Automatic annotation (TrEMBL):
Subcellular location: Cell inner membrane
GO BP, one annotated term: electron transport chain
Enzyme type, top EC level: translocase
Organism, scientific name: Simiduia aestuariiviva
Chain positions covered by the region annotation Disordered: 649-695
Binding site for [4Fe-4S] cluster 2: 380, 409, 412, 415
Protein's recorded name: Ion-translocating oxidoreductase complex subunit C
NCBIfam families: PRK05035.1, rnfC
Keyword Hydrolase on entry: no
Source organism superkingdom: Bacteria
Amino acid sequence: MTQIWNIPGGIHPPENKQQSLRAPLGHIDLPAELVLPLNQHLGAPAEPVVAVGDNVKTGQVIAQPGGQFSAAVHASSSGRVIAIEDRPLPHPSGFAGPCIVIAPDGLDTWINLEPCPDYRAQEPVELVQKIRLAGIAGMGGAGFPTAIKLAPKANQPIDTLILNGTECEPYITADDRLMRDRPEQVIEGARLMAYLLGEPDRVVIGIEDNKPEAIAALRAAAEGSPIEIAGFPTKYPSGGEKQLITILTGREVPAGKIPADIGIVVQNVGTAVAAWRAVVRGEPLISRITTVVGEALDVQRNVEVRLGTPVAHVLAAHGFQAAKASRIVLGGPMMGYAIETGDVPVVKTTNCILAPSQQELPAPPPAQACIRCGMCSEACPASLLPQQLYWYARAQDHEKLEAYNLFDCIECGACAYVCPSSIPLVHYYRAAKGDIRQAQVDKEKADRSRERFAFRQERIARQEAEKEAKRAERAKAAAAAKAKMAEKKSNAGTASDPVATAIAKAKAQQASAQQSPVEQRAKLERQLSAAQGRLALAQEKLSQAETEEQAEKCRAAVKTAEIKLTDVQQKLANAKDAPKDDPVAAAIERAKAKLTMSPLEKLNATIATLSERLQKAEAKLAQAQTEQSAHVEALQLGVDKLRAKLNEAQEELASHSPTTADERAPDDAASAAIERAKAKAAARAAMSDTDKLREQVSSLEVRLDKARQKLADAEAEGSPHVDALRTAADKLANKLADTQSRLENA
């Protein structure tokens, strides 16, 4: 028998739970649109991983966790993503927020699931990550990411796991229906969470005694296991996390702490089932059991709803009578909130949709002045002083509010429920909490700004000090340099004139830059050869000129080339001869002589050179043999090679039949080219215009034939240059046709 402790305060409002428990768990059709907010949990919103137009399957991830303190969002049915935009959110503010909108295709095609029936074969950390990626968040109403609670810090050893099946809020029976219909899954969820938490000493499921059927079902399912099923007297708000801990363990969570700090983890029974299904069956969180209740409905029951289903669709499926309803409330009458539109969707924390009539849940009367009766203090389950908190909230005295532990208020609404003046106390507390949080944020921003400003001022001062130090160092160095220069001047005495020194240095550089006579002559000879080539080229172009304008330009180029050639020849004639003993000049002369030799002369010179080298090699070999040197073999090999080369040269000389052409020195190619160009230019100058055109036609015909032949060869070979060759041939053909036309008209 589990020991039960009492909690302070509390109230007993009408339960109104039987209305929704008369019918079994129901199901409704899919809506035309599923609207899935990216933030259905506490913490950072999820980040979309799909785009508009994408087709998705049931259970597919459509938004990944936006951080460690976040949860994934999955497609609750197969279909197509038709929008990612702001839609109204299920929140007291009525604000809109980012949502992924899916148009179901009616097929409800699932992704391939990855079940893990033997989860004890895996490490707890892997299973916690699986739960995180399945998008499991607290389904009791808070929406705290489940994976965070199942991974306590190393300094938080857990000795007690509590599953919360209290469901103390009036009208709500979603957990009651779950425990009645699926008790085995609740027990399996408890076992899974116990494994993930390192098998705590106690695992207890707390249920108020107004749910006897659920208690009986769970005790039957837990028979033979150490899991405790603890029933305790009904009182609102026994389902609060801290209140339930006190009821079942007698311990209290200190102000500013969390249950894990005292070794306890509390999870909702629906959350435990969702975690078990995510691990064992591989199913992400895509639906939940929601109580649909109120006198404005024809049917009141619990229904399993796909997440993202608009509230209006759920109400329509239960015969909603808008004229009869006083308002639509998400949650219960104590902690729920009214919504302005039925377009808001069912999310992971939607445990109840309440559509009361005017008589069932009338609007609260206008607030009156506080009469200081103290009933709110008697009803507070957190042992606070609601009256003082109310006055300090109205005065915006944040220091007093924090001193009176405003943040220990669980906003259960018990104080407002018993208030004879109908003061909406919770609204004041909630607003004051928001103001304090905002003030803290502003203070942190101001502190950071002040720190940044102080750091900036310090940095500027440091930079100025560094600059001043550098300026002082430069001034000191300049003074030292000036003093040193003055000392040098005083000790200079008969120092040489700096101008004369510079002139002498320039003359020395000029003298070192002068070229030797050999280098000058070689350079002039290269210039002579280049000038002769340019003259020949200019004369060639003159001979091919087609118009008088072109001929005039070519004659000017020929004249310029002749002048340049004459100038180089004059410089070469005036160049100094190299000294007779200059080895460089001797080598150049030998090279020139060799270039002017006939083949027979070259062969005789080669034989003479080889004979001389052979004599020297034989002498070295004889000396090495006498000295018994280690290089005898190498020298012998060299002698043999030279003797073989000499024999080959002598045989070639013996078989050589000199001709007149062999004995004749080679013609000067440049001079010959010049002479040919001059002759051609003279012949062309003597031609009439008609003869010139005929010659041009003949030349173009030859060139066109060659171009067409190249084009044909390229086409046969599949060359990449076919287009270029075809273009060139077409140009030549056009030019030939034009020239022929001019010839005919001449």
